[in-house]
Amino acid sequence: MHEVFYPSLETYKIHRKIGEGTFGQVLECWDRETREVVAIKVIRSIKKYREAAKIEIDVLQLLGKYDKNGSHCVQLRSSFDYRNHICIVFEMLGPSLYDFLRKNNYRPFPVDLVRELGRQLLECVAFMHDLRLIHTDLKPENILFVSPEYVKIPDYKVTSRSPLEGTYYKRLPKSSAIKVIDFGSTAYEHQDHNYIVSTRHYRAPEVILGLGWSYPCDLWSVGCILVELCSGEALFQTHENLEHLAMMERVLGPLPQHMLKRVDRHAEKYVKRGRLDWPEGAASRESMKAVQKLPRLQNLVMQHVDHSAGDLIDLLQGLFRFDPSTRLTARQALRHPFFTRDQYRRF
C-alpha cells in the first residue's frame, strides 16, 4: 500500500502488523519498559492524517483525565513523533465486533450478549457526551473486545449444510467486555457541524439531509450497530444517498415533512413535492429491489431475536427517531427496560 517507517526505538520491539487503513497501520509491539504488549498506531506523514491524530491524542487525554471507573474507551499509553509519523501507543485489545462477526460467518450474537455490548457502548457514549464530545464514527470496526478469547459451541441451525459430521460451530466471546476506539473524527460540541460525518451505513438522516448534527447522530449509529449484532449484517447496505433515505423509510416509515422542507441545497434533489423522490429518482431497478427487499424494523428483529424482542424493538424505535431532537439520549437509552428489566439481569 504505502511505506510507513516503523518506530525502531529502543523502547518497543515490533511483533507484527495487526491492522492497516488509510491513516497508516497498527503494530503489535512489546514495551520493554513496562513489560507489556501494546498496540501502536503509526500515522502516515500526510497533513490531514497528522491533524486527525493530534485530535485523537487530545481527546484520549481528556477522556483519560475524567475516566475514573472504566468508561469503555480505549486507554492511551503514550504518543511520540518518529520521522514525521505520529505514533500513538494504546493498551492491547482483542478483535473488533466486525472481525468477530466475520470470523463467525456473520452469525448473529445472542440477544443477551447484544444487551451487554449495547449497555457498555451506551455508557461510553454517555461519558463522551457528558464531556461535550461527539464520536461521529461509531461502527462495529471501532468497538473492540478487551480479550481475544472465545469458546466454540455447536450451532445446530446449519447442520444440514455441514460436511463435517453434521455439526457447525459458532464462536462466543469468553468475556463481553468491550472498548471503543478511533477518536480521530471526534467533534467538540462548539464546532461547526455541517460537514459529512460517520461511515455510510451508520450515518444519521440529518447528516445526509444537510440539517446539521450533534450528539443524536451517535445514537443513530448505536441503533444501526445493535441491529447488525442481532442480525449479523449491516442494516443499510448502500453507497448512495437517495437509496439510503429510501431504505430508512422502508424500515422505519416516512421521513417527517418538517425535515424534508429544510434540506440544504446539496440534498434538495432527493425531495420532490414535499416527499422523498422515490422510487422515481432511483438510479436503477437493482436499487429499487434492494430497498423493496428490506423488512420493517419489527419484522427484522422478530426474525432474529428469540426473547425480549418487544423491549429491543421499542429501544430501537427510540434510537431511530428521524427527528434528532426527539431521539433518545445515551442516558435515556440506558434507563430503557431492555437494559433494566429484572429478568435480564443475568450477568
TrEMBL record:
InterPro entries: CLK_kinases, Kinase-like_dom_sf, Prot_kinase_dom, Protein_kinase_ATP_BS, Ser/Thr_kinase_AS
Pfam families: Pkinase
Residue intervals of the Protein kinase domain: 12-339
EC number(s) reported in the record: 2.7.12.1
SUPFAM superfamilies (alphabetical): Protein kinase-like (PK-like) (SSF56112)
GO molecular function: ATP binding; protein serine/threonine kinase activity; protein serine/threonine/tyrosine kinase activity
Keyword terms, alphabetized: ATP-binding, Kinase, Nucleotide-binding, Serine/threonine-protein kinase, Transferase
Residues given in the record as ATP binding sites: K48
GO CC term (a single one): nucleus
SMART domains named in the record: S_TKc
UniProt catalytic activity: L-seryl-[protein] + ATP = O-phospho-L-seryl-[protein] + ADP + H(+); L-threonyl-[protein] + ATP = O-phospho-L-threonyl-[protein] + ADP + H(+); L-tyrosyl-[protein] + ATP = O-phospho-L-tyrosyl-[protein] + ADP + H(+)
Highest taxon listed in the record's lineage: Eukaryota
Family: Belongs to the protein kinase superfamily. CMGC Ser/Thr protein kinase family. Lammer subfamily.
PANTHER family the UniProt entry points to: SERINE/THREONINE-PROTEIN KINASE DOA-RELATED, SERINE_THREONINE-PROTEIN KINASE AFC2-LIKE ISOFORM X1
UniProt protein name: dual-specificity kinase
Organism: Rubroshorea leprosula
